[in-house]
From TrEMBL:
This is ASPARTYL PROTEASES. The active site is at D149, D341. GO terms for biological process: proteolysis. Pfam families: TAXi_C, TAXi_N. The keyword Protease applies. Residues 131-456 form the Peptidase A1 domain.
Amino acid sequence: MSSKSLISFVIYGFLLLSLCNSLKDNAVDGTRAYFHALKISSLPSSDVCKESSKDLNEGSSSLKLVHKFGPCNPHRTSAAPASSFTEILRRDKLRVDSIIQARRSMNLTSSAEHVKRSVPFYNLPAPGVDYIVNVEIGTPKKEVPLIFDTGSSVIWTQCKPCKACYPKVPVFDPTKSTSFKALPCSSTQCQLLRHGCSSSKCTYKTTYVDNSSSAGIYATETISFNHLRYDFKNILIGCSDQVSGDSDGQSGIMGLNRSPVSFSSQTANIYNNLFSYCIPSNPGSTGHLTFGGKVSNDVKFSPISKTSPSSDYDIKMTGISVGGRRLLIDASAFKIDSIIDSGTVFTRLPPKAYSTLRSLFREMMKGFPLSDQDIFLDTCYDFSNYSTVAIPSISVFFKDGVEMDIDVSGIMFPVGSKVYCLGFAELDDEVSIFGASQQKTHTVVFDGVKERIGFAPGGCD
Ligand SMILES: *[C@@H]1O[C@H](CO)[C@@H](O)[C@H](O)[C@H]1NC(C)=O
Ligand SMILES: *[C@@H]1O[C@H](CO)[C@@H](O)[C@H](O)[C@H]1NC(C)=O
Ligand SMILES: *[C@@H]1O[C@H](CO)[C@@H](O)[C@H](O)[C@H]1NC(C)=O
């Protein structure tokens, strides 16, 4: 063999080998991983911030999404309080109760009356999700931490002079901002909002199911992102001098639902009605909330339901698989579309769908000791004796063939030292809610022009 042909033989062999390898990888990809490795640790204590290494999308504007108690939040006031898990569960239940209550009052929870209704506002308790964005308000700019919330409308912050404000977090002072303009009662905008009036200023008050509330005035103000070249002028915001309830790290909420007063709707013409986010898998990493930009080919879209209330994002869930096995759930279990909500922590499923998921999951986990936690997550395991556990994969399917392979951080949720629970729960209704935990590490794209929501894996972390 000449040295030339030897070289080409070597190169050919190398190519063949790489081809085989890539075929093998594809095969694994095609059938998907049936199990994920879950590393068991005591509750995460992250003191170093790990920035997501994903490049930001060209032509877009991004805010970092950070955990309010995590090391990536420059304004964090404290580490997560010991009670924070109980608190997350409490708020998550309240939020789901109020979503269901609102939908019931509109007759939207059972298929018989599932018709399109226009519901511009309904009040939700502050999201249980602890991810925030830091946004600049006013002239000069003042940075305030806001929870991002696809389930609510108004963007609001607490404001001076406070009758009652959250302690330890920034308070916006409108008297120091030259761009702040209170919304007059006589304005068309105020009349459209159909809220109250006080000393000719347009006022609002929202009371949540847990009796917490936020009250103040509507105003228009300039909003900026830290590295943006220009500011958004005259954005309608809520300026709240009276808040009650618990905050431990946020000054307010950035509402991103489909109502015309949400931040995403108000900036839709600038960003071509497109925004996306990625929630990181753990509090020590950053994610993003991004407006505009290009949509990657990896994103698989499902249409926003025509029957959803005008302000919500509903998409049609069509099935679930566990460990690669599609659950045998009657299609009627998914008759009502799913609400996709960044403010609900755990995905809720109708009784039949949940019990089928739970039995197969428990079946596949039967070697591990179940642990009764007396919380609404009812499939918990004590992994004290393990350092790594193989967890069955879970995929959720949506209309138009979208398959979303849930990240391991969205399958098992740590609730105590080495105790983990399945991050899904039953909802005593026909509605399902696709929650934030199950969206972790995926890019979730809201495309208002084409009325569709898309998912792509590997968006952050
Ligand atoms: C909801 O349905 C119930 C029973 O079908 C009916 O009595 C009630 O008036 C409906 N409510 C609304 C707001 O349409
Ligand atoms: C809220 O307040 C009302 C009236 O004061 C009371 O009946 C209700 O039980 C309270 N709800 C909660 C969750 O505290
Ligand atoms: C861990 O292993 C020990 C020894 O085998 C056993 O006694 C204990 O019950 C196990 N704990 C759990 C939570 O499985």
